[in-house]
Amino acid sequence: MTDNQTVQAYIDAWTQSIESITELLAPLPTDAWNRPTECPGWSVRDVVAHIIAVESELLGDPRPIHSLPRDLLHVTSEFARYMELPVDKRRCHTAPEMTGELEYTVIRRSRALRNARHEAADLVRWPAGPLSRDLPYADLLRNRVFDVWVHEQDLRRALGTPGNLDSAAALVSRDYLVEGLPKIVAKLAGAPAGSTVAFDVTGPVEFLRTVRVDANGRGAVDETVSLAPDVQFTLGWETYLRLACGRGRPGPVKVEGDEELAARVLANFVLTP
């Protein structure tokens, strides 16, 4: 796939996911907007507010002027405070105000993406408060696909309307999360040199990946089957997603091999900030 095709694939995946969110919200009764999601401290309304806020900031809109309450227990870092401010600002907004703002933001952002003249490698600003930095344009788009799709799934679980677990955005998110496996296994879990940890994921998105730790303690992912890994995890795709994103208590995980190493891997599985 060429760089231009990759960029377009990310835009298409983002479009499908964010339009699925607008369709999901259209018939939603007012009380459903207050349902809690698996994002700590965030309701359905809050997740939607977050999506609006990030896309608006990418459009160049100014951040709202707002004083954030100090008693929000789920806000534990400067990055979290940065993301929380535009969410808290919208907590008094009605359902029609939220859906109207989301639809208008999607229209504007879609137009901006169509008219953008960035090449895949061009550096653009990722607005994330203390974590802000310049990223290649293609990486920024991939980040937005991942974030929007993960929050689409947050909303679907909260509302009891499963779907799109095997969409184009789901496949982008799979690759994004697989890239983080070496960090989990080698760095965070401290797997010893020469060890192998396999992940056998089943369900709407199936894959088998092995993390191998080299003599210098660095991990790398490959798709070959390890006949006798030190640890093998077998789990469903949605469980894998929820583990990697720190979402509540996920479904069952079958563990074979070194139980101590497996426990360290599971204790450090969260990849999202």
Account of the protein in words:
The chain is α+β, with helices and mostly antiparallel strands and 273 residues long. The chain has 2 domains: 160 residues, dinb family like domain (Four Helix Bundle (Hemerythrin (Met), subunit A)); 89 residues, SCP2 sterol-binding domain (Nonspecific Lipid-transfer Protein, Chain A, 2-Layer Sandwich). A 5-stranded mixed beta sheet has the order 5-4-3-6-7. Strands 1-2 form a two-stranded antiparallel ribbon. Helix 2 packs antiparallel against helix 5. It contains 9 helices and 7 strands.
Low-confidence stretches: none
Question: What is the CATH superfamily of the largest domain?
Answer: dinb family like domain
Q: State the total count of DSSP E strands.
A: 7
Major β-sheet strand ordering: 5-4-3-6-7
Outline the biggest β-sheet.
5 strands, mixed
Radius of gyration: 19 Å
Number of domains: 2
Domain MDMPI C-terminal: 172-264
GO molecular function: metal ion binding
Domain Mycothiol-dependent maleylpyruvate isomerase metal-binding: 15-156
Pfam family, one: MDMPI_N
